[in-house]
Amino acid sequence: MENLFNHLLLEGDIDKALALMTDNSQRASEALREYNPASHAINQRHDKPIYDKKGNFKRWVKRWKLPIDYPRYINEIALVFIYGKPVRWRQLSEGTEQAYMAFNRLVQHLHFDARIRECKRLAGAETQCAMLFHPYRNKQGRADCRLRILARSKGDDIYVAWDHFGCLRAFAWGFHTMNHEGLSIRHLDFFTDERIYHATACEEGWQMEVEENNIGKIPVVLFQQEKEWAGVEPLIEREEYIASRNADTNDYFSDPMLILDADIVKNMPDKKDENKTLIKSGGTAEAAASYLTWDNAPENKQKEIEWLQNHILSKTFTPNIDFDNMKSLSNVSGKALKQLMVLADIKAARHKELHDELLDRFVSICKAVIANVLDVSLKSECDRLVIAHEFQPPFED
Questions:
Q1: pTM of the predicted structure, to 2 decimals
Q2: What is the pLDDT of residues 311-326, one digit of tens each?
Q3: How many Cβ atoms sit within 10 Å of the Cβ of residue 32?
Q4: Rounded CA gap, 33 and 35, in Å?
């Protein structure tokens, strides 16, 4: 497969090369639609037209559209419980102190702590993103390296090719730039262990440039997962619908209505009137004038909202952290508080199964960058360097 892939790229047959790769952009776009409150289905509600008895249009009555930002809340809680505190690195090998110091300097130079949180947030929101290492010459003419975070929300297209054992064999990054005429130009960069292929769309098809991959590894850490709110989409949509309908009902019933006695009903209040008056017959002298008010909402509707909120959070392993709940926990011990957060700990432990491997790959690429690009004198130490990582609990004891 690898030989065929390289042959297609060298021949400039980009379409066939992409056909050998996986493209998850459609799934990412759908997740982003749900992640953005402005694009929730509840926003498709239309205002209600009001007509008089003769069928003539009078006005529009606003129908509330209240999207609830559950996905962002669920995603942020999941992020805090795995990367709320920086990852701790430990050197396990001996005689590799210089390489380990170079690794720590590179981690700080790449702003790893901020970048890993960005990657986890993006992956939880749109199911995938990538951390791309880019070696280059800085202004002083020295070898340097930076990180570029790729994601659908940033306008990037991500293509991946795996072998039968799930090992990354090729990676492609699609993006657009503007030329001097203001026209959008399509680019595709293909990465393999040996080479980097830069393809640029032109009138004749594709213009290809090839360079050696000095790092010696595909310089990408790929983050892929299910969206953090997977499985509770219908529950979120239902609560948004109930909340929006309740807002409409509150507008209709919130103002009191004046009731006056009369032999016959002479007038009916308009729905939009703020000071409604209803004239009725059959009243007593004591009730010649009174007010009709809406005392409370149906109890079963409130119970349904509470049921939805409970299942949305519990089924996504998300603790309900709000001011009212935390205020009642002021005297709770740290051990008891940790037990209350057990759902988030369970979810973080599941994420760590994947992120253990991703952090190992990050270390491997950093060692290759140091040994083959930044400081080749440390190559032998980098080959022997063994680094372990440790996730830290998000809260102090």
A1: 0.85
A2: 999 999 998 876 666 6
A3: 19
A4: 5
